[in-house]
Amino acid sequence: MHTTFAPHVAATIGGVRLVNPLETPDWDAKVAQLPEATFFHSSAWAKVLQSSYGYSPVYFTGHEGDKITSLLPFMEINSWLTGRRGISLPFTDDCIPLGAEANAFGTLFEQAKAHGKARRWKYLECRGGRRSLGDVPTSCSYFNHRLPLQPDEAALFAGFDSSVRRAVRKAEQNKLTVEFLQTPEAMRSFYDLFCQTRQRHGVPPQPYSFFANVQEHVLAKNRGWVVLARQGDQVVAGAVFFQFGRSVIYKYGASNENFQHLRANNLVMWEAIRRFAREGFTMLDFGRTSLHNNGLRRFKASWGAQERQLNYLRYDLRQGRFVSSQESVSPGLHSLYKFTPVLVSRLIGLLLYKHIAGLFLSFDWNQLGDWT
After folding, report:
1. Other beta carbons less than 10 A from residue 343's beta carbon
2. What is the pLDDT of residue 134?
3. What are the two backbone dihedrals, phi and then psi, of residue 213, each rounded to the nearest 5 degrees?
4. 3 state SS of 116
5. Distance CA 15, CA 63 (A)
6. Which of 19, 209, 256, 276 has its CA 20 to 30 A from that of 339?
7. Are 232 and 333 contained in the same domain?
8. Does residue 362 surpass a pLDDT of 70?
């Protein structure tokens, strides 16, 4: 099959519709009806990825009339540096295919393969869905942690490890203030802190345009928050959260190393948990963690979060089979970036991020902070 479907135009192939969520009325309301739908399936995240990096949304859907019954979203990445491929979805921790029927994913996946061949993708990658395909090789695995939320604040706090409770109390004694904000100014404050944190860990930051798009398409639409901790006028820690339905995702974190002793990160997380639980959210997703990152893994578990494993799949369209990914970042590069001036590191990020989507990295590039 050699279709010439353009990613921005709705089409039907083999009973499966190819749609652009940004051109589909009431997309979020329709997707919210599917079990396990998250923020990453929303139009807001699609808009951020498209606006920031120029990716083309190609969302495969099953339907009953106008009702969406299954969904497998992709972004087409067309890079002169790393080639053309389909990722579901880039810079996304977990994006399971949605659908109540057991065979829904298989049907969508077959059409995605056919479309990818026609578009000359090198491969397609799914960040979830392995259980629906049977015994196929896993490309890469991570840990994921989720904390069930409840209105009983005392019970939530009691579920934390003693070290977390002590850190929160210490932060409160240090008279830090915590703000929930959605403004461009708040995002700029967070980004400045984020760049410092990335340099400290030897990782270039995403371009500011990405965070500006997050502010415009997510925060300004009341779909997320920047949470900032201050000592006086000084921003000392921060985090970015996304929300959809009754679930919240912790996506990015940052801190000022000089104020680490104040335990501001812990207070940011606790105040976020308190607020989201009070507002009726039922789940906080702490995102993914590399299998070897024991420090971040322990930190997330210390909040009483439940651990599970995320399995990604990569189907090589040239070889016609599932493959494992071998890409990683050399520890030497992390050391090099630590000594790179912030402005140079930001330039590297500006030039790099569009091209690396779908490349598996041996480090957690999203949630870097100084957790103790």
Report:
1. 9
2. 74
3. -70, -35
4. helix
5. 9
6. 209
7. no
8. no
In the structure encoding, which two tokens stand for residue 346, read together? 């930001």
Q: How far is CA 112 from the centre of its chain?
A: 22
Residue 243: both structure tokens together: 């929300």
Q: Is residue 156 part of a domain?
A: yes
- Confidence category of residue 370, pLDDT binned at 50, 70, 90: very low
In 3-state terms the chain splits into helix, strand, coil percentages (rounded to 5) of 40, 30, 35
- 294: three-class secondary structure by DSSP: helix
Residue-wise pLDDT tens digits, 295-346: 899 999 999 999 999 999 999 999 999 998 755 554 545 555 566 777 777 7
Which letter does DSSP use for residue 135 in this model?
S
Are 44 and 130 part of one and the same domain?
yes
Q: What is the C-alpha separation between 267 and 160, in angstroms, rounded?
A: 13
In this structure, is residue 248 part of a structural domain?
yes
Q: Are residues 298 and 333 in the same domain?
A: no
Residues of the domain holding 235:
144-308
3-state class of 64 per DSSP? strand
Mode of pairing for the β-strands spanning 283-290 and 11-13? unpaired
Query: Do 195 and 205 touch, CB atoms closer than 8 A?
Result: yes
Residue 3 lies in a domain: no
Rounded CA separation 258/283 (Å) = 32
Q: What is the CATH number of the domain that holds 180?
A: 3.40.630.30
Cβ atoms of 213 and 52 closer than 8 Å: yes
pLDDT digits (tens, 9 = 90+) for 214-259: 999 999 999 999 999 999 999 999 999 999 999 999 999 999 999 9
Classify residue 189: in a domain, yes or no: yes
Q: Do 148 and 25 belong together in one domain?
A: no
Phi-psi region of 134 (alpha: psi -120 to 50; beta: other; left: phi over 0): left
If you write DSSP's letter for every residue of 153-190 in order, what string do you get? HHHHHHTS-HHHHHHHHHHHHTT-EEEEE-SHHHHHHH
| Number of domains forming the structure of the chain | 2
- CATH, residue 75: 3.40.630
